[in-house]
Amino acid sequence: MSGVRVLVGTRKGAFVLTSDGGRTAWDVSGPHFPGWEIYHVAGSAADPTRLYASQSSGWFGQVIQRSDDGGQTWAPVGNQFVYDGAAGTHQWYDGTQRPWEFTRVWHLEPSRTDPDTIYAGVQDAALFKTTDGGSTWHELESLRQHKTGPDWQPGAGGMCLHTIVLDPTREQRMFAAISAAGVFRTDDAGATWRPVNKGLHSEGIPDGDSEVGHCVHSLAMHPTRPETLFMQKHWDVMRTDDAGESWQDVGDNLPTDFGFVIDVHAHEPETIYVVPIKSDSQHFPLDGQLRVYRSRTGGNDWEPLTKGLPQRDCYVNVLRDAMAVDCLDDCGIYFGTTGGQVYASTDAGDNWSPIVRDLPAVLSVEVQTLP
Amino acid sequence: MIRVVLPAHLRALARVEGEVQLDVEGPVTQRAVLDALEATYPMLCGTVRNQVTQQRRPFVRFFACEEDLSHAAPDAALPDAVALGAEPLLIIGAMAGG
User: What is the pTM (predicted TM-score) of this model?
Assistant: First the structure.
């Protein structure tokens, strides 16, 4: 019987939650790396036993951990992330230029075909790659060196490259999202990049057609529709059907279109999920009600999903990497909160229940569907 | 034999308990001790000092013999008691936060 493995990164360690295909009884393993911030844990689609975790600390810096047995045991691998060539400068909060400085790895994106190849999105924004299972990392420097780089500026969480989307049909194409610069696309495996932000409008940017400066929070793609991406922006839920050449707002019917996460149903490319958050200054759900919103039409028409979720006195947040879906026949949806709950739905969002309730604040959730 | 006390997070990362003991050839300096520490426990590379600049991480401090050695030159000799193994070099995670 198939099963699932949910990989949870938290402010104080990593947790591995496993269940069979029924997804009713869960084994909770952890905390792994207790006391460290785990921004992301990711598993290889090419080898589900191969996991990587980004472990960091304001005191002791960045560590990358690797597991070859599905998270039972871990070992540190290479952690040297050095910008290639001159670091250059970007815009700081006060408008001055500031040198790029590595802080941490926000996101790990494994290759779909090679368990030793992983991309890492880091703060200050840059993209790194390993092809030796994490022993050594090298920067795909042309992204950071893009001519707009001096105009990039940090969002409230830092100037991070937080989302990496690999096109499953074009080996050379990938998307990277940076807060607060926007989305960039390469069609030549990272040799060159260009911003793909037309149609994004961000309050406070004087130039309505600015190609950078957008605070993109998250991207999602269904593997059968690689031209279509969905975006949760600082404000606005957007979609593109031409690989980012143009974006349309599809979030107007939401009670608030601020939020962090967005994801796509595993078998229905037009079914998408967001968790509306009240505002950029109040990072919690409206009215104390934790509601996932689902659109079965790729946006515009949305329905609230509330069964099993707290509908009073709930003031948690759901951060940008904290939602994922499994690939079982009845698609499972998972998300984690800053209150330490990880919720799961085994019926595409109609009903929810917590897998765990009292973890440290959840930073990321990924799911592996196991054979 | 040089004795080094690591903070708890780094002991866990290096999978050691208690003090670590290191052979250091030549003058016993911060740099020499950290070189030996990282050679013996490569998973600690980058956690105490920057791997490129060799600068101490901002929230890491060095103490020995009731002295704060955090701002001492990396190639300055450590106290004789450390060099002789009578006292450990303490690597401390600074008390910061709130």
Answer: 0.97
